Each structure stands twice: as C-alpha cells, then as structure tokens.
Amino acid sequence: MSDIRYVSEGTRAAIRRTRREDGAEFIRRARESVAFHRPWLTLPTTEQAYEYYISQLEREDREGFLVCVRTTGDLAGFININNIVRGAFQCGSIGYGAFPPAAGQGYMSEGLGLVLRHAFGPLGLHRVEVNIQPGNKASIGLVKRHGFRLEGFSPDFLHIEGAWRDHERWAMTSDMLDSGPEPADGPA
C-alpha cells in the first residue's frame, strides 16, 4: 500500500483514485458482490468490462474514487462522479457501491462525505446529484444522512440488469454540505 496516496482521509475510511492497476482486485470484489448489488447495480466482472469502466473514468468529465479502510487499504467500495458539466452548471452525478463484507459498517458514509468535500472543494462543483431506485432503502438512507434533498422522480431512467429502472433524483448544492444533518455515527 506504500505506493498508493489517498486523496482524503477520514477517521476510518479514505478515498483514492481508481487506477488501471486496481483491476484484478476490483473485479474480484465485483464478482463477490453480484448478488448483493442485484438489481440496483451491475459492476465490471471481467477484464474487458473493467477496461471499459476505467477508460470511462479517465475521461475529463469523470472522477473515480475507491473507498478504502484507512488503516489497511482494503477496498470497501467505490464512488464515481460522472457526467461533470462545467460552465454555468458546475454539476456532476454520483454513483457508488459498497463491497461486502465492508457494507453496512460506515465506510461508505464516511467515504461519501470525503468525496463530497472533494467535489465542492478542489473540483469546484456547485451541485451533485444521485439517482436511486425507489426500493434501494440503504442507498436512500445514505444520501439522507448527508443532507441530500429529494427533487423528483424519473421513470425508466437507467437501463440496469436488463430493464429500464425508475429512479428518485436526490441532489445537494455546495451550500448544503455543512448545513445538512451530521452523518450518523456507526454503520451505513
């Protein structure tokens, strides 16, 4: 782990950039997580799929982060900022997923806080959005704990697991970051 630099560190979690060299570990974690993520999310589980995934993260309008257990460097999950639009909009869409067995232990909650501070700080974004399937209670709980507001409902929004899925649209602006509710201590 000595050659890996964290972008930001919290008490228990840290974030670092997703790299091509992370492919084998990411694929292994994704394969272990298939049942856990169904039907909410499909992750790259082959080298070819990871190659496409990482090539998308290398675009100028994307930022990819791995959420790690700070003391060991073990992967707890990932958080990506996609479709970053500059100019008058200064907005990006956040997507994320936890990897068992770290899921439900607070790493993603702390990691999301670190990514939000990075998005509204060094990246200079004004707004971030998260689109969540209505039945994904864990994900909705995560954004609520960070003070996101529900802004709407988008039918047939994303094609996931072979079907077009409805999503709720949650958002936060930079001025909401420190005025929202404090993230709850404990698992998330």
Helix-strand layout with pairing:
Elements: E1 8-9, E2 13-17, H1 23-32, H2 34-37, H3 47-57, E3 63-69, E4 75-85, E5 91-98, H4 107-120, E6 127-132, H5 137-145, E7 149-160, E8 163-173
Parallel strand pairs: 5-6
Antiparallel strand pairs: 1-2, 2-3, 3-4, 4-5, 6-8, 7-8
Strand content: 25-35%
Q: Total number of helical segments? A: 5
The span between the termini is 25 Å
SSE order: EEHHHEEEHEHEE
| Estimated structural class | alpha+beta
Largest sheet entry: 8 strands, mixed
What is the molecular shape? globular
| Major sheet strand order | 1-2-3-4-5-6-8-7
Mean pLDDT: 92
Q: Percent of residues in helical segments?
A: 25-40%
Gyration radius from CA atoms, angstroms = 16 Å
List how many beta strands DSSP finds. Answer: 8
Extract low-pLDDT stretches.
181-188
